[in-house]
Write a structure and sequence with these properties.
This protein is an alpha+beta fold. The chain is 28% helix and 28% strand. A hairpin with a 2-residue loop joins strand 2 and strand 3 (66-73).
């Protein structure tokens, strides 16, 4: 069952609320966010003492005019061509940050694949299946949730595809 602080029990983020409502087992990991750190994902991995291959970042791309979520390990980068192919598109570019924030309801560096304002097509990098649990943003900088890749895939309706590059 989830480990939550009193603040999270009182409401939490849309991501933790969605996980609780779904009855999914998850663990919340909080850490002090350093605004000077060059990478949100690497900072999370370091702060939690978790391998960067198990910490996944949530990126929003524009695939042929449709905002699409890509969930890839922080240890690598997103292959935009592979993302487009995974959702049957032709061309992908990174989404405008303001559009990503407006559509998901989260701020950059804290975008979670869960509990978004508008459900977007989602692709989870195939490497997630190699781990019993992975960590993704819980919806705010300095807050991560750990859950099984299968639960993440089910809750987001994600397809699994090799979209990350080392």
């Amino acid at each position: 069952m989830a480990k939550k602080s009193k603040k999270q029990q009182a409401g939490g983020t849309p991501a933790t609320v969605a996980l609780t409502a779904a009855g999914v087992a998850f663990t919340v990991h909080a850490y002090e966010h350093d605004p000077a750190h060059p990478s949100y994902g690497e900072e999370a991995a370091e702060a939690m003492g978790v391998s960067p291959e198990r910490v996944f970042k949530t990126l929003v791309a524009d695939v042929d005019g449709t905002l699409t979520v890509a969930v890839v390990p922080v240890a690598g980068t997103l292959d935009l061509k592979a993302l487009a192919t995974a959702v049957g598109g032709k061309r992908a570019t990174m989404a405008d940050p303001a559009a990503a924030e407006r559509t998901t309801g989260y701020v950059r560096g804290g975008i979670s694949p869960l509990g978004q304002r508008k459900r977007l097509p989602t692709v989870l990098d195939a490497s997630a299946a190699a781990h019993p649990t992975i960590c993704v943003s819980a919806g705010r900088r300095g807050l991560e949730v750990e859950l099984s890749p299968a639960d993440l895939q089910t809750l987001t309706g994600a397809v699994s595809a090799p979209i990350g590059r080392p």
